[in-house]
Design goal:
This protein is of the alpha/beta class. The relative contact order is 0.15. The chain binds N-[3-({4-[(3-aminopropyl)amino]butyl}amino)propyl]acetamide and zinc ion (ZN). The site of zinc ion (ZN) has 7 residues, from loops.
């Protein structure tokens, strides 16, 4: 399958993030994408192609225009106010404060347009995030044109980003942008399966009241795991979207038996919704060696994920989300895509 990749991801490079109250080396690094690219090329997964330029229109079908403008300007404003390094928020409105943005102060806007402290905006964040979304759109078009599957090597990732907020290393929601693009180019029903360790709160929120995009996610139980505030099993959709959201939270420490049982449940439910296309939010932070996650999948399990997905026999757009064990990330992603392409030979 084709691999859509842009070197523009490298422009987004935060050196540090705040985690557990300390400034630590960032987990979401350019090396992640380079490791994936080189593993996919070594494994002969397919041709590497650049993204097409879709401009801003398909992004503004998902994200708030004020948020998009803010992302474009935030780091310039940060630097212009005499600050160094990456722009990081430090204040957010509490429940009894208005959520309407009334301040033009940079720190007010940084809090308004984010939900965590761990998603720094650097000089190149906007360029990289836009290229990442264009990779997703290009992969969607490749599949729409008749190829059975494509892989968008998105970086930065997207599934935590909502209509008007960043978070969880995510700025633009690549999976949602691709899903909306498929909807507007004639696919009546689209399913998104999110296999990243973390719940894709942004993707869920964007489609929560819609019946045309089904969202299913297998993830660490938000009772103890990031993003904490969304991803519980009783969130099943609202209004027209009732019954069109499936959360399968699993306890910390879950391994292949529990995880693959949840995958079968997700795939059965997706099949019952009879979508015309599948988008896979592919995080490999389910790996036992992941530094920030707590599932126990081994490298040998990733081809089996690909095999299970292939059994759906749907046009499939794979998009990269998380995965922070850089030494293993390439072989784990190559495993999923290889298993999908050669389901009987793995
Ligand atoms: C796309 C994606 O995978 N985003 C994940 C964002 C997670 N950010 C917060 C992680 C908090 C983890 N704390 C455990 C640290 C162990 N050293
Ligand atoms: Zn993740």
């Amino acid at each position: 399958m084709k691999i859509v990749y842009s070197p523009r991801h490298r422009a987004h490079h935060a050196r540090q993030e705040i985690n557990r109250g300390e400034l630590v080396p960032a987990h979401e690094t350019p090396e992640r994408a380079e490791a994936i690219l080189s593993a996919l090329q070594s494994a002969g997964v397919g041709l590497v192609v650049p993204p097409e330029d879709f401009g801003l229109d398909p992004i503004l079908r998902v994200h708030d225009a004020g948020y998009v403008s803010f992302l474009q300007e935030a780091h310039v404003r940060w630097t212009a106010s005499g600050r160094s390094g990456a722009a990081i928020p430090m204040a957010w409105p509490a429940r009894d404060m208005p959520r309407v943005l009334r301040s033009t102060a940079l720190d007010a806007q940084l809090g308004h347009y984010s939900f965590d402290i761990g998603t720094p905006i650097t000089a190149g964040t906007w360029d990289a995030a836009l290229a990442s979304a264009h990779c997703a759109l290009t992969a969607a078009d490749i599949v729409r044109s008749g190829e059975p599957a494509a892989f968008a090597l998105c970086r930065p990732p997207g599934h935590h980003a909502g209509h008007d907020y960043s978070g969880g290393y995510c700025y633009l929601n690549n999976a949602a942008i691709a899903a909306q693009h498929l909807r507007e180019s004639g696919q009546e029903r689209v399913a998104i399966l999110d296999v990243d360790y973390h719940h894709g709160n942004g993707t869920q929120a964007l489609f929560y009241n819609r019946a045309d995009v089904f969202y299913a996610s297998i993830h660490g139980d938000p009772a103890s795991e990031y993003p904490y505030y969304l991803g519980h099993a009783d969130e099943t959709g609202r209004d027209a979207g009732a019954g069109h959201n499936l959360n399968l939270p699993l306890p910390v420490g879950s391994g292949w038996p529990e995880w693959s049982a949840a995958l079968d449940t997700a795939l059965d439910t997706i099949a019952a919704h009879a979508p015309q296309a599948l988008i896979v939010s592919l995080g490999v932070d389910t790996f036992a060696g992941d530094p920030i996650s707590k599932f126990r999948l081994e490298t040998a399990h990733f081809p089996q994920i690909g095999q299970h997905l292939a059994a759906l026999e749907l046009p499939t757009v794979f998009l990269m989300e998380g995965g922070y064990a850089v030494a293993a990330i390439g072989r784990n992603v190559a495993g999923v895509l290889g298993g999908f392409q050669q389901p009987d030979r793995q």
